[in-house]
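Next comes a concrete protein, fold included:
___
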Amino acid sequence: MPWAKYSGRSRILLFVCFCFFHECPSISNWLLTDRKAGNNKFVNLPNKYRKELRLSNISTIAPDLRPAVDNRRASVSGLIAGVDLGGTKVLAGLSDLNGVLLAKMEEPTAHGEGAPVLKQIVRMILTLAERHHDRGPLLRAVVGVPSAVSPSTGLASLSPNLAIPADQPLAGLLEAGLPCGVIVENDVNLAAFAEATLGRARDCTSVAFIAFGTGVGMGLVIDGRLFRGHHGRAGELGLLPLGADPHDAAPKARAGLFEDQVDSPAIRSLYRDGTVPVSEIFLRAGSGDPEASAAIAALAKSASVGLASIQAVFDPALMVLGGGIGSRPEFIELVSQHMSSLLPFAVQIEPTSLGPEAGMRGALMLGLHELSSQKAA
C-alpha cells in the first residue's frame, strides 16, 4: 500500500481499518455485503458479536432504557418475604430478587396462649406470596422478633414484651407452614442491617442502630456483617447495669436496669399521673408544656449514658436512633447535648431514614443477601 501520499492521521486510520478487516473477517464480510440483496444484516451477524452491538446501541442511543435492560438480564423469578414482629403490630413485606418491594401488609399482633402470632405470620406471608405468584415461588422468609436469637440453637430468649416459644426454634415452627426456608433474627439487628445497606449508613464501615420505644435494643453492623455475639445477645442494652446500686436494683428490675429508665413506661411515669401516651407527651412538649419537656429531657439524659457506653466500647462510625421515642428529632438533640458532657469527642447521631419499615426492609435485604451467599458458595 502506498503510504507516503497520506498524512499522519490518515495513515493511522488506514492502519486501524486494515487490522480490523484482517482480524475480523466475519464482521468485514457482513459490512461489505451488498445491501441491495435484501438480507437481514443483523440476523446474519455472528452470535458472538450480535449481543454486544445490541447493548451498545441501546446504551448509546437510548441511555434511559439501560436500567430496564439490566433488570431484564439480571431478573430471576422468585420472592422474598420479610416480617417485623412487634408487641403491637406485625408488618410483612414481599420483594422480588432485584430487591423491589412488591407489597406489604400490617396487622395488630395476635396475643394469647399457644403463640397465635406464629400462625398469623404464616398466613400473612402466604397471602402476599399468593397475590404475586406470577413473579415466582417463595424462596426465603426472614422474620424479625424482639428477642435474642441464639445462632447455634435458634432459640429465642429475653422477650419480656411478647410471649413466644422459648423451648423450640422459631424457624422450624414457621417452616412447618411455609414452602421455604425461614431465618429468624433479632428485629433491631434487621433494622441495623437495613440502615447499613439502604439507609444512612450505606457509606459507613460500622453503624449502631438503637431503638427506643416500647423497649430498648441495639443492632450492630461492622464491616458489612451483623455482630450477634456468641449467644445472640449482643445489643441487649436493656440489661446494662446502670444506676447508683445496680447489684441491689437488678433483681427488682421490670425489664432490665437500663430499659426501665428509657422505655415508654419510663417516660410516662415521669409525666403527671403516668397514664398519658408517649405521643401525647411529645405533642404537649412541642406546645410549650414545661412538665412534658422536663420528662423528655430526663429520659434523654438517662439514654445518653447508655449511648456513651456503646461509643466507648464499639466506636461505631454512626449511631442511628429509631423507635417511637428514639426517632424524634427533639429527643436526639437532647441526647447529643448530654453526650457531649460524657465523652471527650463528638458523636454522629442521626434519626432512622427508613422509619417504622426499617425492620421489615432489613428482613428483605438479609433474605436476598443469604440467597446470594448460597449461590456464590
Observations:
- The chain has three domains: 3-74, 79-188, 200-353.
- The longest strand covers residues 89-96.
- The first helix runs from residue 8 to 23.
